[in-house]
Amino acid sequence: MAHDASLPIDPAAARDQLIEAAREAGAIALDFYRPGAPTTARIDSKAGGSPVTQADLAVDEFLRARLGALFESAGWLSEESVDDHARLARASLIVVDPIDGTRAFLAGDPRWAVSIALVVGGRPVAGVVHAPALAETFAAARGRGATMNGAPIAVSPRPTLREARIAGPRPMIEAIGRAAGVALAAQPKIPSLAYRMALVASGVLDLALAAANSHAWDIAAADLILEEAGGWLVEADGAPLRYNRAQTRHGVLFGAPNGLIGRFLEAGRPSAPAGDPMMTNPSPRDREAP
């Protein structure tokens, strides 16, 4: 497929640059990672109590230098950087989560990821979710499809919600199952939200949920990967997510194949009445990976 002349960059070339950067960043993080054991990295606490490690900051510093040189005109938004609202005046934006799933990383759980997206005009055009400890790299470029380790991926062909493999907060899953009148096959908790949505893109999961208050850096790359694999990542209104807004937080999120997203939303909306603390105020334990 030819490069879309309406875009100021070539999405496929940008994707390849993001993959290379993500893999180098993952190697930096792996220097501090110990499978099944606590990280060797120094651990501090951010405002609000969530952890940040020496590895998060090292990866953030590396990616800001590398991607800033590659995409000089783009703004910057990262979980581990102070948000400069000057980015709002930029046509393009790099969105980074240096380590999505920090609690998993520091405990020796391999299900964490480096997440990078290039956003143009409010939507991602290139994205990578790289899980270094699992040797899995999910990537996408707008109009070019999605891959895992270079091989094409696609969402599950499951036709109904019944027995759908779903990951997310257990109370939300149970509420949606009741509303739909079906049994859902709830999966063990997946700490990284980016990785959770990437597993829907690859067909390992049929559905994924996230409680409210996830941030753009958690989801921007996975959003494109899921879309290019034949799925959608949306809030309860079903509209495509927009990025490079002053507000980086998002509401309850639903990730599913195109053929299931309508039924998923229909069952999910009644389970999230206004003011429902299950949907709007995740516990501190769940704030990192809603």
Structure description:
- The chain is an alpha+beta fold.
- It has two domains: 11-152, 2-Layer Sandwich (Fructose-1,6-Bisphosphatase, Chain A, domain 1), CATH 3.30.540.10; 165-286, D-Maltodextrin-Binding Protein, domain 2.
- Helix content is 31%, strand content 24%.
- It has eight helices and 16 strands.
- The protein has helices at residues 11-30, 54-70, 102-107, 170-180, 193-201, 216-228, 258-268, 277-280, and strands spanning 43-45, 51-53, 75-78, 92-100, 113-120, 123-131, 136-141, 146-148, 151-152, 165-167, 185-186, 207-210, 214-215, 231-234, 249-250, 253-257.
- Helix 4 (170-180) links the parallel strand 10 (165-167) and strand 11.
- Helix 1 runs antiparallel to helix 2, helix 4 packs across helix 7 and helix 5 runs parallel beside helix 6 (216-228).
- The longest helix is centred in the first third of the chain and has 20 residues, at 11-30.
- The model is unreliable at 1-5 and 273-289 (pLDDT under 50).
**Architecture of the largest domain in CATH?**
2-Layer Sandwich
Shape: globular
Largest sheet: 7 strands, mixed
Cα Rg = 18 Å
Mind telling me the CATH superfamily name of the largest domain? Fructose-1,6-Bisphosphatase, subunit A, domain 1
